[in-house]
Amino acid sequence: MPAVTRLQAGGSIKDEVDRLAKPLIARGEIYSMAVGVLAPDGSTWNFGYGLSGRPGDTQPPTGDDVFQVGSLSKLFVASVLAILVDEGQLHYEDTVRSILPPEIPLNKDIGDLTLQELVTHTGGLPRQPMDPTQMRYFACYLFTGHNLYGYIDKAYLYEYLRTCHIKPKGQREYVYSNIGVALLAHLMEIKTGRSLPDLVAEKICRPLEMRDTAFYLNADQQKRLAVGHVGDQPKFIRRNTPMESWDMGEIMRATGGLYSTVNDLLIFARANLGLLNHPLEPRLAETHQVQLKTPDEDVALGWLVNYFDNGRVTLLYKHGMVSGYNAYIGLNVDKRIAVVVLSSNFNWDDKIGHNLLLRLSEGLPAPQPELGNNLTRPSTPSPCLSGERAGERGFEFGNH
């Protein structure tokens, strides 16, 4: 690969990011983006392209510009779950029925779902409810960009859990489920008596000093919010038309409602790589352990796992889209490399993050042994979870 050859010959990280990012800006495929890199030597790099979209701002976004990060929110849900399990407040074997109030009627198969099945998307729940209400909201979204999930509140969720039918346990496959993660977060809230925003702040953001990662923005963060734009979706609105960020609401915020910055997500990456000497690091490392193999990739707790170069390169990553934004975070645990890419268009595909992480993984020297961390690469999948992947994309809506 030419990029690897360039890096091995002493080429700069900036040149590789420029090669990937600048053509997308020039073609109008992406309105603006902020890219962050954590190199094996511990140095961090920030790069900005395009414009933030804020009135009067003529500069590219920086590592402190705020973006909505879509399904990267699920990494924080999975991380909080791992912490709560370690604290003994929850167990992966806990069921929906054992946590929801007894007066809430449930389809029995739904009631038997475990937290483990919800966090690994193996419980048989669909990507989102597929009913006439969702179809109306989807049609409206295509022409207006309005929130696809605006109708999903607690009353709707409980009625859905009463009437939803899923396949018997032995017939279920891996199906990426937004409604499943929403249910998981709701159960965590019931069990702890704390809201998801409070749990994420208390268990992750305050301990790691991630000051700009939140479900709701304060006045200063609102001023630094990059304006979202139409990308591949909504289908019937011109690309690069400004879009408002979505308020995902009490139930669906777990699936894609979080905001963050490149700099905050690089802190999260450092903690996941074991570089902060922080008590949270072993709990975060637990989320890297593979739970399920699929034909396309392995599934950990929140993270997805890809292997390259005959298994010699292992990358953990998460990709998210919501309203007018696209987000990516990826890790190479062995080489202590991380890449974060936040952009202000809804685009299905990540054309920078994974590509850049692979280039850096193969082109940059490994860290010195004495500086390495004690985290392990993803393990062999648990034998209790197996199955076929039921389509990566399918009928995708607002976040991934």
Descriptive overview:
It is built from 15 helices and twelve strands. With 400 residues, the protein is an alpha+beta fold. The chain has a domain at 2-54 and 61-88 and 195-371: Beta-lactamase, CATH 3.40.710. It has an eight-stranded antiparallel β-sheet with strand order 2-1-12-11-10-9-8-7, with helices on both faces. A two-stranded antiparallel ribbon has the order 3-6. Strand 1 and strand 2 (44-50) form a beta hairpin. Helix 9 crosses helix 12 (249-256). It starts with a helix and ends in a 37-residue tail after the last helix.
Any idea what the CATH superfamily of the domain at 2-54 and 61-88 and 195-371 is called? Answer: DD-peptidase/beta-lactamase superfamily
Percentage of residues assigned to helices = 25-40%
Unreliably modeled segments: 371-377, 379-399
Main β-sheet description: 8 strands, antiparallel
User: CATH class of the domain at 2-54 and 61-88 and 195-371, please?
Assistant: Alpha Beta
Using the 3D structure, state the CATH architecture of the domain at 2-54 and 61-88 and 195-371: 3-Layer(aba) Sandwich
Q: Strand order within the widest sheet?
A: 2-1-12-11-10-9-8-7
Helix and strand run: HHEEEHHHHHHHHHEEHEHHEEEEEEH
Beta-strand segment tally: 12
Q: What kind of assembly state do the chains in view correspond to?
A: single chain
Instruction: Please tell me the overall pLDDT.
Output: 91
Compute the CA-based radius of gyration: 20 Å
End-to-end separation in angstroms reads 29 Å
Outline type: globular
CATH topology of the domain at 2-54 and 61-88 and 195-371: Beta-lactamase
Q: Structural class, judged by helices and strands?
A: alpha+beta
Question: Per DSSP, what share of the residues sits in E-state strands of 2 or more residues?
Answer: 5-15%
Tally of separate helices: 15
